[in-house]
Design brief:
This protein has a single domain, classed as Alpha/Beta hydrolase fold, catalytic domain (Rossmann fold). It has 6 helices and 8 strands. It is globular and about 40 Å long. It has 229 residues and is of the alpha/beta class.
Length: 229
């Protein structure tokens, strides 16, 4: 069962979210954090897959603070628009969109009655890393090719929950030396590197890698089973 809903952050900001519910009672919940392309059909399909695995899946619209109804494709103009929206969202005063992640986690916990994990892709991967350190109620975090999480001050964050990170060895956006440095600095984080490019999990992109996507998915589901139930 799929529901479009509206959630309210602590500061009163109302934003939309895509919710996929499992057929039976959920064994926990997963908050799915979008790429720079909005809660598009791909992110909705990711949420659907977590619901089919038995979790209540919530995909909050992380761009709603700067522009509502964002659902982009993967063409050059879409990339440019996504980067523009990300820059606007990143420029928001703290806590910015993490307030919306918190609201989504709170909702997921209340609706599932279980523990909540967060998973995210690209910009969503970076938000997962931040959420692991700052968002209350997160029991496990899985970041896919989180752009920026290995650079600048981001590695100085300390996750407060079990955390997993997936990277592509051929990802020009996230240099491999930075990934290795991140892994060295955070031995508590389960870091996996695949012979794949940025966006390898997304079957709507040319960089999709079925082998890497399958392996990463299996690892993430096992990770969530261990920490969420």
């Amino acid at each position: 069962m799929i529901d479009p809903i509206t959630l309210d952050a602590a500061d009163g900001h109302a934003f939309s979210a895509y919710v996929a519910r499992p057929i039976e009672n959920p064994k926990g919940a997963v908050v799915v954090l979008q790429e720079i392309f909005g809660v598009n059909s791909h992110i909705q399909s990711v949420a659907d897959r977590y619901a089919s695995a038995g979790y209540l899946a919530v995909a909050p619209a992380m761009f709603d603070r700067v522009q509502t109804g964002v659902s982009l494709g993967y063409t050059g103009p879409d990339m440019d628009e996504g980067r523009r929206l990300k820059a606007e969202a990143e420029a928001l005063p703290a806590p910015g969109v993490l307030a919306d992640v918190q609201a989504a986690v709170n909702y997921a916990a209340s609706q599932s009655g279980g523990k909540v994990g967060v998973v995210g892709y690209c910009w969503g991967g970076l938000l997962v890393w931040r959420s692991a350190a700052e968002v209350k109620g997160v029991a496990a975090a899985a970041a896919y090719y989180g752009g920026g999480m290995t650079a600048g001050n981001e590695p100085s964050r300390q996750p407060r929950c079990p955390t997993m990170a997936h990277f592509g060895a051929h990802d020009a956006h996230i240099p491999l030396d930075g990934v290795h440095a991140f892994a060295h600095q955070h031995p508590e984080v389960e870091v996996h590197i695949y012979q794949a490019d940025h966006g390898f999990n997304c079957d709507a992109r040319g960089s999709y890698d079925a082998t890497a996507a399958k392996q990463a998915s299996e690892r993430t589901l096992a990770f969530f089973k261990q920490h969420l139930g």
